[in-house]
């Protein structure tokens, strides 16, 4: 990207993690750590703790991220993450961490 005159830090994230609530954020931090370890080139942004759920989703969309990784109460209970494509009309899916990693590997422009 730098050859095209775009610095790496200006590139949109591959994924944006949305989590509302303390338990959800703890699960999200653990998920982020696993994703960054398993996918070293992944550009992952995290929603701010003060922002509400809908505000985080709007920010995820505005960020240019290809997908939102959503962690809510149901996801924490299941030990999974909701994978929501933001740039096409694909349906949102509930995935295990391993399935999420595999999907991010296959997403164009991702790690």
Question: What would the keywords be for this entry?
Answer:
111 residues; alpha/beta; 4 helices; globular
Instruction: Sketch the major β-sheet.
Output: 5 strands, mixed
Q: Structural class of the helices, strands and pairings?
A: alpha/beta
**Radius of gyration based on Cα positions:** 13 Å
Q: Please list the strands of the largest sheet in the order they lie side by side.
A: 2-1-3-4-5
Which outline best applies?
A: globular
Average pLDDT for all residues: 89
Strand content: 15-25%
Determine the fraction of residues in helical runs and give it as a percent range: 25-40%
Q: What are the low-pLDDT stretches, counting only 5+ consecutive residues below 50? A: 1-6
The H/E string reads EHEHEHEEH
Count up the helices. Answer: 4
The number of distinct β-strands equals 5
N- to C-terminal distance = 14 Å
Q: Describe it for me?
A:
A five-stranded mixed β-sheet has the order 2-1-3-4-5, with helices on both faces. The chain starts with 14 loop residues before the first strand and ends in a 5-residue tail after the last helix. The protein has helices at 22-38, 53-63, 73-78, 97-106, and strands at residues 15-19, 44-46, 67-71, 81-85, 93-95. A hairpin with a 7-residue loop joins strand 4 and strand 5 (93-95). The chain is 40% helix and 19% strand. With 111 residues, the protein is α/β, with parallel strands linked by helices. It has four helices and five strands. It is globular, with a radius of gyration of 13 Å.
